[in-house]
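Thread title: Can someone regenerate the structure for this chain?

I was given the following input by a collaborator and told the matching structure tokens would be attached. They weren't. Posting the sequence so someone can regenerate them.
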Amino acid sequence: MSTLKPYSVEISIVTVVMATDSTHAMQVAEETARESLGDVSHTDYDYGFGREIKSESQLSSIGWDGDCLPYGGDGRTRLSMILGNLQADAEAERDTKTIDMFEEKKA
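Best answer:
Regenerated them for you:
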């Protein structure tokens, strides 16, 4: 069974809204975003490639933090716990027989 890992993915669409000015247009676009996404064919999306999130420090650049719940998860486990578990698993998988192979020898 494969382990799910967090990835950031950017999805953008172009939509047309009715508004009084550009500020109002942004407001209307935000209010109707779910509807717009539902109406757009998947071929009209502009996708950014997924970038694996390996540490909480990467989250701030996308406006997220460790307290956030990722989409596609169990709906309860926060990113801080997910990332902590993934890092602990990676540490546990280290080969302890060769872990000091490249360390300098003390005289």
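Residues 58 and 65 are 9 Å apart (CA to CA).
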